[in-house]
Amino acid sequence: MKKLLVLLVAIFGLNLTSAQTEIGGATLPQTLEYGSEEMTLNGAGVREKFWMDMYAGGLYLKNKSENASEIMNKDEAMAIRLHIVSKMITSDRMIDAVTEGFENSTNGNTAPISAEIKKFISFFKDEINKEDVFDIVYLPSRGSVIYKNEKESGSIQGMEFKKALFGIWLSNEPADDDLKEGMLGKQ
Fold first, then answer.
1. Which of 94, 122, 128, 161: CA 20 to 30 A from 103?
2. Does the pLDDT of residue 14 top 80, yes or no?
């Protein structure tokens, strides 16, 4: 009986460990589900600035991929989870980082999606605290849907916006090269 109990604990313990990923002081689930769409963690990494961890980020896809361009251009369900791990992240700093991210991901051509960018930035105006979790979810039927701590903040239609949004982390000029590599499962 004792051996059976040890075996069950070992089996369930392994299952619990594989159901999430620890990175940068955050725990990311192996899967995310929004509506009828289930996505699997493709990879994860940490956004660092001045040698400090700012947030842990995970990329969730229907099918694993290491091709950033293909992911940005794909019209299928996907998500990026940002788990804030630093008290240094404020609303103003996040807005500045996102604004710079859109500039970089569009090669400075933000004009065609300026209204969408303005709306997206408004989702970060509330105070941001350590342990806050943002889910940026693309659903073909709804567009890009943003959640803060599991509460929907709003959505934005359009593939061009979606490409630029995911490009913040996956473009040729990403927010953080190591984070990009991690999200693509290359680390």
1. 128
2. no
Question: How many other CB atoms are found less than 10 A from the CB of residue 70?
Answer: 10
Half-sphere exposure of 76 (CA within 13 A, CB side): 12
Q: If 0-12 CB within 10 Å is exposed, 13-18 middle and 19+ buried, where does residue 47 land?
A: buried
Cα–Cα dist 18/16, whole Å? 5
Pick from 115, 169, 165, 121: nearest CA to 139: 165
Closest CA to 156 of 147, 105, 74: 147
For tokens 């980020």, name the residue. Answer: 57
Cα 19 from Cα 3, distance rounded (Å): 25
Q: What angle do CA 36, 38, 44 make, to 5 degrees?
A: 150
Q: What pLDDT does residue 142 have?
A: 94
Strands 26-29 and 20-23, bridge-based pairing: antiparallel
CA 149, chain centre distance (Å): 13
